[in-house]
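Encode chain A's predicted structure.
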Amino acid sequence: MIDKTITIEELVEEVPGAVTYLMEQHIRCIRCGEPIWGTLEEAAREKGYDDAKIQQFVDDLNKLKAGEAVK
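Encoded structure for chain A:
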């Protein structure tokens, strides 16, 4: 199960589709072919997202991991 403390590197490894999802949310997860370090929460906070939005990211990423569509 994905939570906000997952590192970006682990997230991308577990859910390759997370790259596209995060880019759509304006959260960079790859820079120059190298993973971005830090957690999902840290990356989201750098972009000004609040707790509710971060939880939405977690929920959506768990859906992606389960093979479900994310709106």
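The radius of gyration is 11 Å.
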